[in-house]
Amino acid sequence: DIQMTQSPSTLSASVGDRVTITCRASQSINSWLAWYQQKPGKAPKLLMYKASSLESGVPSRFSGSGSGTEFTLTISSLQPDDFASYYCQQYNSYSRTFGQGTKVEIK
Amino acid sequence: EVQLVESGGGLVKPGGSLRLSCAASGFTFSTYSMNWVRQAPGKGLEWVSSISSSGSYIYYADSVKGRFTISRDNAKNSLYLQMNSLRAEDTAVYYCARDSSKTTVVTPLQPWGQGTLVTVSS
């Protein structure tokens, strides 16, 4: 199975900061990578797909990049609504796997 | 409005069984692949199982293979997860999630239901 490794596990930041989360795959997944946001007690929400495509309705301060095995999610200017956990997920294979998550906390 | 509503969670003893259901509405259920994803308390997301739109193709995570069975009833717009031989490590919120687009290839998951909690404990 393809393993997904996210870093950091926790990130402390302030409103207005530029934030970057990294996701690495154990083998090439081309651009078949999605990013999800999850708030406490809520279901995950799709933010990005195909590594860099923004899901409809998601603010443009979110962006994604990468291909192969290295990917990043960037929030250009952190807003109060963005404090949440973020997960990457590969969908290169049917056994889709998630990264372990990154919690973005208020500094 | 697209909606997924899970039910059937609860407290079950180790070795026991439970059947989860997911009622879908707001879209043509029979044309989308469907999935179960779980999240143990305070932990990350784990993909559990997927089923194609017709039910012909089924996939499981190694952690549940041989114990869990995914199925669907397109006439009832419903997805199911039969869980047998439950273990403490199966304790989690179980989410039903739809493939984001109706294709024959793997896609991201959107939308998701609100989840149903399964607790395996004696």
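qc> The two ends of chain A are 36 Å apart (CA to CA).
qc> done
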